[in-house]
Design brief:
alpha/beta; 6-stranded mixed β-sheet; 5 helices; 10 strands; globular
Amino acid sequence: MKEVIHEPADFSSNPGNTGNAAAEPRLVLTADHITKTYRRGWRRIKNEVLTDANLTIKSGEIVGLVGENGSGKSTLMKIVVGSLDGDSGHADIRGSFGYCPQEPVLYERLTCDEHFELFGEAYSLDRGAVDRNRKDIYGILDFAGYCDVRVEELSGGTKAKLNLGLALLHDPDILLLDEPYAGFDWDTYLRFWELTGKRRDAGRAVLIISHFVADEERFDRIVHLREGKTVL
């Protein structure tokens, strides 16, 4: 069985901070020889999704994980963050992480502000840090006007902004983003990449998974997932 190790890290009060990056990049994520097989139907037919997935990410890197729909990208992400067990292999995150799943995990009857307060408690942030970080995120992603609006009344694009914002709230060492810009308009897409670039400059790491990459120059590396294996 795979092992996931999450080492604690200090929280920063500013997710958009572009302070000094670490002098030497450090390893923040490794996934070694991850395998995962699902069994479908009453005949328990095997579906080998991951057969030998390997991944490493260092601080100050933007890495893309690319593959066709159904190739196992989201499965690998879930195994790395610990929400799904792999069959074998080893996953290790060194530091704090923020996870942005493809399908937003939001509460329909809570407002955006209430989501930030709830997640701030989960991250053990004090009220001042939550307020500062929330204000920064609203400004960066341009949705402060929806702070008091319930999720059930939000558009898909604004839900995607909130989903990303919650992953950013505690300024994690590494962001793990599953199709993060699906539903973004062009302005938000550009804001997303401005934010991502600032995080790289500050020594943070970002993993973005997608079935298609249009702007390869925005990534430091792109890893492809094919037939259950990662290839460069």
